[in-house]
């Protein structure tokens, strides 16, 4: 709502407003929100090892590939919520482009393959590590996959996830959003104690950060 001003000889000049992109959204009411089991939808599977009360919806702003600011939400462990907000603030300051950030319940059956093929950045998904029967750190809200189509996982058999990511197995590519060892974006996570799957060998998982 605009504020009307009464002209006055004694009125102080209006304070300068911080410069904001024309279409920047106003700050989120609270960037850390509780989530319910119902809101987690198909991403909360039977036997899930975490109580939804331990998870939080974290609202973050990011730079899109269109060069414009956007807002998305991640579901993460309550222990990491403040850290994740700080991390995405740093990614924005670095002008690292992110395609989209949607919770995986937006995809049929919270299917991780569909989310990855859509190059969607996400965190919580109550799923196992494919082929192992062990819960992934994503099932605890302790892992984030960043621009996963551009940064695929290559498992010990050589299979690529998502399966549409073959063009991005070539890690000499320097397209915006592609992660490389030593990148400032990778260091934003690792300096905070997160592990990067791009440092692993079997699998090698360029999209994956966990803590
Ligand atoms: Zn992952």
> How much helix is in the residues?
10-25%
How do the strands line up in the largest sheet?
1-2-3
3D shape: globular
Let me know the average pLDDT. 90
Structural class: alpha+beta
Individual helix count = 4
Order of helices and strands: EHEEHEHEEEEHEEE
Q: Find the count of extended strands (DSSP E, 2+ residues).
A: 11
Give Rg in angstroms: 20 Å
Largest sheet: 3 strands, antiparallel
Strand fraction equals 15-25%
Low-confidence stretches: 1-21
Give the domain tally: 1
- Name the ligand types: zinc ion
- N/C terminus separation: 42 Å
Task: Give a verbal description of the structure.
- With 211 residues, this protein is α+β, with helices and mostly antiparallel strands.
- It is built from 4 helices and 11 strands; from the N terminus they run E-H-E-E-H-E-H-E-E-E-E-H-E-E-E.
- It has helices at residues 37-40, 81-93, 112-117, 184-190; strands at 32-34, 55-63, 69-77, 100-101, 120-121, 143-145, 153-154, 160-161, 195-196, 204-205, 208-210.
- The strands form 4 sheets. A 3-stranded antiparallel β-sheet has the order 1-2-3, with helices on one face. The protein has a 3-stranded antiparallel β-sheet with strand order 6-11-9, with helices on one face.
- It starts with 31 loop residues before the first strand and ends with a strand.
- The relative contact order is 0.13.
Question: Which features does this protein show?
Answer:
binds zinc ion; disordered N terminus; alpha+beta; 211 residues
